Please model this.
Amino acid sequence: MDGEHTRAEKQGGISRKTLFKAALIATPVPLLAAQVPALARQTAETGGPLTPTPYCDDGDDPTIPQTEGPYFKPNSPQRTVLPGAGTPLTVSGYVFGLACQPLANVLLDFWQADNSGAYDNITYNFRGHQYTNAQGAFKLTTIVPGLYPGRTRHLHVKAQAPGRPILTTQLYFPGEPRNNTDTIFDPRLLMTVRTVGTGREATFDFVLNVPGVPPTDPPTSPPPGGGTWQVGVTYQAGDRVTYGGAAYRCLQGHQAQAGWEPPNVPALWQRA
Model:
């Protein structure tokens, strides 16, 4: 279990070399201003392998403990939406290996407290697993978990790349008063969170202890689908392009690379 880790990384500019890294990766820092760490995709241009963050656990695996606290239940349903009453929350991001390559088909098993801070240990409310797509991306739709005695606000997750050990960790919210008193809290596991309307949007990039070959600079040839989208261009959130006869709006700032055409990366582009 201890063999896999995750990391939110140091903020920096995105170069052509580092988009493959990708759309995510970076130099480690424990904490940025206002307890909001940068994402792994916001790497500095120095390159080099990623450093996994510490394994985080509270004794809840592989079996349910006979103590109060968040309990892990195996065999959760496969789903990306955990329905229930509360403040809407979406969590999205990517999973990378040590050499900056996105990892496909990574199992991500999420579980959390409900709006009142209670865990469902009988059925599977607020429990579910999913797999990263071909670009290493994931998205979870849920609610902001409630608080309960002794802990700060958090989400639980197990991450496992195909054929690799399991990482058990937790994701935290910046600015929570209990972050300073929670004995398990680790600032390197803070999500980047913003308020959108009546809900919240969070992002986090996992870095697993999976070796690989660092990616090379992507080609600069025009995309086969035609349109205004171009490899090598740095796009900002809100930019609009066309590709393959359709219009798209940029959701996250990044530098375009081959293989990340708008239809292939819904985490970066939305049909306009």
